[in-house]
Amino acid sequence: MRRAFVVGSLLTLIFVGMSVACWAQPENLSVERFVGIGVRFLPSALMPIGPSDIDPALGAAITGHYWVSDLVAIEVGGWLSGFSDSWNPRSFTSLSGGLLLKLSDNAQDDLYLAGRAISFQSIYRNYCCIYREGEPPTEVQQDKIMPPYPWPYESRTSILAFEVTAGIERSWSAQVTTNVEFGFIYAQVMTTNFPPPGGPPPEEPVPLPKPETAASTSFGITVHISVNFYLPRK
Fold it and tell me: What is the pTM of this model?
């Protein structure tokens, strides 16, 4: 009886010790990740955080990650959108690439640094309506609107940006994470405007107005929130 009591006590102590060790060292949910896909965006409620001329569209992307190791990942991303009504079609295209470097590899919350390069293209066109009798139509004179001229006003914007952010990744499981990033972004912006001729199509060829190009640089604060889904290595 005494021997059984001693054996039972030892087994209990071993079980309690193993439970405490497992509680003190929980499973690391971010190990052995392979590839992942996610969505990165900037909530409108957080914009602007401070004075910034940075286009918030630079922070939006569908992202893909390839983990070279448990601490280093390669990221590629992109975003394509468009809008069009009767007179104003526009489109946006964004591509990005960069690296993620983990500073800490904990059970659930990991700190990391991210560096990215972003290329952004925007095209905006405005087809101005033309009136037959030289006056804007009223609600009952919509038939006086003629089709637009074939020469619309057009604006093209190209942005090359570089950003460095610090982030925290929360692993809810081995597959699902949420990330919050805060950092700085530097952007070079070039905008070219193609004005319309300014009148009806001429009967004889005349020189058209020349496009105007403006360049600028900007530096600002950026905040990202992202949700990612990962597949483990086999």
Answer: 0.70
Rounded to whole angstroms, what are the CA distances from 138 to 134, 146, 161? 12, 14, 45
| CA distances from residue 73 to 42, 61, 196 in whole angstroms, order as listed | 22, 17, 47
With contact defined as beta carbons under 8 Å apart, do 75 and 116 qualify? yes
| Ordered alpha helix ranges (H), the chain | 2-24
Which residues in 114-132 are b (16+ Cβ under 10 Å) and which e? bebebebebebbebeeeee
Rounded CA-CA distance 193/123 in Å is 10
Distance CA 122, CA 95 (A): 12
**Distance separating alpha carbons of residues 26 and 33, to the nearest angstrom:** 17
- The model's pLDDT over 78-96, given as tens digits with 9 standing for 90+, comes to 988 877 766 677 888 999 9
